[in-house]
């Protein structure tokens, strides 16, 4: 019984320290966000890489590039950090050929994830997830930000 109790306490300690690490990473990411910059992408000039010092910005920018062109070379090698629905192929999706976004705020969640609020615009409809207030739900795994979900809200 003592071994079980000790194992349980160690597991709880590890879980709490992992949550603190995620919260710390979210706080660090929030400090590096440039909330004044509008990031714009077009199918005519998608480029590999990211010039921002913020990993959160780079991950969202990658998602936007993959929304515009899921066959873009950078998308294939980073598929594991984006939701599968970004890569759906269907003519009725009305993918944009242009999309821009500006980060407005970042909000930690109790489950260790972070919601990144953006104001976005695009020239398509793509599930309704490229125009208006788009929220990227992100989590840090293995020291890398992953987008685990996206949704749109009206304010």
Task: Describe the secondary structure blueprint for this structure.
Layout: H1 2-32, E1 39-42, H2 55-68, H3 73-77, E2 98-108, E3 114-122, E4 132-141, E5 144-153
Antiparallel strand pairs: 1-2, 2-3, 3-4, 4-5
Structural description of this entry:
By secondary structure, this protein is an alpha+beta fold. The protein is 32% helix and 28% strand. The chain has helices at 2-32, 55-68, 73-77; strands at residues 39-42, 98-108, 114-122, 132-141, 144-153. A five-stranded antiparallel sheet has the order 1-2-3-4-5. The longest helix is centred in the N-terminal third of the chain and has 31 residues, at 2-32. It is globular and about 40 Å long.
Task: Let me know the number of strands.
Answer: 5
Kindly, what is the distance between the CA atoms of the first and last residues, rounded to a whole number of angstroms?
53 Å
Strand order, main sheet: write it out: 1-2-3-4-5
Q: What is the share of helical residues?
A: 25-40%
Gyration radius from CA atoms, angstroms: 18 Å
How many H/I helices? 3
Which structural class is indicated by helix and strand composition?
alpha+beta
């Amino acid at each position: 019984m003592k071994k079980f109790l000790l194992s349980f306490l160690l597991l709880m300690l590890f879980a709490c320290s992992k949550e603190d690490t995620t919260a710390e990473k979210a706080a660090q990411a929030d400090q590096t966000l440039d909330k004044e910059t509008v990031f714009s992408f077009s199918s005519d000039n998608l480029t590999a890489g990211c010039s921002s010092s913020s990993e959160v910005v780079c991950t969202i920018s990658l998602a936007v590039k993959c929304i515009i062109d899921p066959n873009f070379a950078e998308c294939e090698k980073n598929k594991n950090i984006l939701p599968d629905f970004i890569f759906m192929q269907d003519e009725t999706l009305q993918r944009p050929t242009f999309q821009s976004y500006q980060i407005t705020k970042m909000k930690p969640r109790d489950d260790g994830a972070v919601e990144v609020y953006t104001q976005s615009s695009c020239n398509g409809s793509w599930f309704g997830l490229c125009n208006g207030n788009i929220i990227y739900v992100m989590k840090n795994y293995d020291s890398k930000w992953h987008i685990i979900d996206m949704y749109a809200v009206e304010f």
